[in-house]
Amino acid sequence: MGIATASFASRWYITLYSGGVVPHRTLLRIWDIFLLEGFDWLYFMALALLKYHEPMLLQLNFERTMEMLNAKMDIQDDNRLIQIAQKISKQARQSRIVSKLKRRYNAIQKQTVDAKSG
């Protein structure tokens, strides 16, 4: 669809999903796991929310998609959402993609600092 994640997910991350992103009961589940697993969990949850709603999102036009992504997400089955996020987390750990991306980010940050100081 060509939608930049910054156009909807920034609010999710900045508020730790508390800014009217998900129902309160779902928010508590997200926070419980976030406190156990750390910040990476927030990214896995964002992907899980998109996957959970994928069938509906693929049917909507751009405007309706943006409305849905910026409104409170309707979560009927918290367990299913958590299972999706856990599967994504497991896949990420097995592929080591998160650690690779963190190393790449740190290298870019170092290059930026070196360029400014040099």
TrEMBL record:
What InterPro entries does the database record attribute to this sequence?
Rab-GAP-TBC_dom (IPR000195), Rab-GAP_TBC_sf (IPR035969), Rab_GAP_TBC_domain (IPR050302)
Q: Which residues form a coiled coil?
A: none
Which residues belong to any copy of the Rab-GAP TBC domain? 1-38
GO MF term set:
GTPase activator activity; small GTPase binding
Please identify the protein, giving its name as recorded. Rab-GAP TBC domain-containing protein
Q: Which organism is it from?
A: Lunasporangiospora selenospora
